[in-house]
Amino acid sequence: MCQLLALNCAEPTDVSFSLRGFAARGGLTDHHVDGWGVAFYEERACRVFVDEKPACQSPVADYLTRHPIKSRNVVAHIRKATQGGARVENCHPFMRELRGQQWVFAHNGDLRPLDKPEAGPYEPVGTTDSEAAFCFIMNRLHAHFLTNADVDDLDAVFEVIQQATRVLNPFGIFNFVLSNGVAQYAFCSTRLSYVIRHWPFSSARLVDGDLSVDFSERGTPADRTAVIATTPLTDEVWTACQPGDLLMFRGGALVHRAHVAVPAHVLASSRYALSEQSALAA
Amino acid sequence: MCQLLALNCAEPTDVSFSLRGFAARGGLTDHHVDGWGVAFYEERACRVFVDEKPACQSPVADYLTRHPIKSRNVVAHIRKATQGGARVENCHPFMRELRGQQWVFAHNGDLRPLDKPEAGPYEPVGTTDSEAAFCFIMNRLHAHFLTNADVDDLDAVFEVIQQATRVLNPFGIFNFVLSNGVAQYAFCSTRLSYVIRHWPFSSARLVDGDLSVDFSERGTPADRTAVIATTPLTDEVWTACQPGDLLMFRGGALVHRAHVAVPAHVLASSRYALSEQSALAA
Questions:
Q1: What is the DSSP string of A155-184?
Q2: To the nearest whole percent, how much of chain B has pLDDT over 70?
């Protein structure tokens, strides 16, 4: 299984602390070795860096540590291939343009093939279940916003994502993060946590590396950051999402929540996957 | 004005020699200082690196020199802003997915605003004339291949690009390169050159830097590379395209050519731009 990381910040933020702990999971402190990727929004632009090498050995990861990009929205992913080979086109996050906005998506889980793809302009380039699911959501958004100019209506976007998630949910484990550069949408199918950092800040220590940061030395009252990850990255107090939680973060805050029921067979397969993982780690 | 570089190779090729000479034009040997970008295809995947810094100072360019990517198709661009600020979203090349393929585009020239954008799913993220023209072409391709599954028919793609170019041509100077990862399409509105390297190879010296490479030490009979650029990069014998030349390269060879007449007012504005440039350089 893969690991997800997303950040949604009120102000452009150097996220290299979180990225460093996260990258360590790509082969160093965990077994997610089939590539990784990260997308940084810089206002309307989105830069995507992907690498089919493990994140802990990746020269791109090293480059980003030395040349941090300040961003309000970041989506990162470390891959343990379940479907699709360790090739660049199968590395998350995936990006597509819709109505003049860049959208990025990363998935943790395993979906069986969709009955039929949603009609529309978006088609997968690679062979993953994840990119197929992303294209399904994007085609739904395209159909909705074709006749409705206001793609900036984040609640309307939330609504479409919620409907698409309801369709895709029975196909398997479907934890995901999706951003349009303003909001972060996150769905907990089986496992996802988040923490909100805000003023007055305290310090945090990475779970996956001997590194602490005292955010109180840097943060201002205007700063606020939501960090969303498969499992907590730091020793801060994280909130574990419940299966079925669909969340929207904006300006570093949780601003909307809905529930999309996760079928029992998916939760059961997840428990099997988790116990298998524990056995591997043991 | 900007500078274009594209490569189309029979085999995955390390293009850092050409890229090095090209990057020198981004502020070192020439005045193209408003950002740069390069797209590398790796089979179906395409990795785009853009930077709003001058290429000659860019840490991304430095990174790519130290970690060369082998590719069959490369599109690079150095920007001297004419329309749209020096922002990441305005850096070429631009990328969009169509029918499960990544398409990239870079433009050298200056277009006045289109009368109306072509209807379709592709919309610009930034504010350049170039991205608007790219979206125009992509929407034409989308409309054509919506009902025609065979987007792998490169001649059919050529036909659509030719028609779109005929529409866009009167709006100004429109030199461009466009790739779908298999072919390179290149249009000479006012200025474009190319060279084909094939076995037995000889050596080449960069025009923009004290560097020579003896390709005969590396190349095999299977290797063949077409290099397309605004102006020749090396002391090899380059072919200067004629205004109106629309070319298709595949497997490192020129495989198709058509003519799209360039209006006299565009050629006249180009002569003005060139003389202005000479005056600046003097």
A1: HHHHHHHHHHHHHHGGGEEEEEEEE-SSEE
A2: 93
Alpha helices in chain B (DSSP H): 16-24, 59-66, 129-146, 154-168, 264-281
In this prediction, the answer to ipTM > 0.95 reads no
Active site residues of B: 2
> pTM of the predicted model, to two decimals?
0.92
A88 vs B43: CB contact, 8 Å cut-off?
A: yes
> CA of A107: how far to CAs of A190, B28, B38, in Å?
12, 43, 27
Question: pLDDT class for A27, splitting at 50, 70, 90?
Answer: low
SS3 for A272? helix
Q: How many domains does chain B have?
A: 1
Chain B residues with beta carbon closer than 8 angstroms to that of A126: 44-45
Q: What band does A282 get if pLDDT is binned at 50, 70 and 90? A: very low
Q: Is A47 on the interface with B (CB under 8 A)?
A: yes
Partners of A42 on chain B (C-beta within 8 Å) are 87-89
Task: Kindly state whether B207 is in contact with chain A, defined as any CB-CB distance less than 8 angstroms.
Answer: no
- Per-residue pLDDT tens over the stretch A139-193: 999 999 987 669 999 999 999 999 999 999 999 999 999 999 999 999 999 999 9
**CA dist., res. A130 & res. A90, Å (int):** 9
CB B3 within 8 A of CB B32: yes
Interface test with B, best of A40, A47, A151 (most B CBs within 10 A): A47
CATH code: domain of residue A139: 3.60.20.10
Which of B226, B229, B255 has its CA nearest to residue B241?
Answer: B229
Q: Distance, in angstroms, between A120 CA and closest chain B CA? A: 9
Q: Which domain holds residue B111?
A: 3-281
Q: How far apart are CA B24 and CA B114, in angstroms?
A: 33
Residue B280: what pLDDT? 44
CB contact under 8 A, A88 and B50: no
Is A63 an 8 Å CB contact of chain B? yes
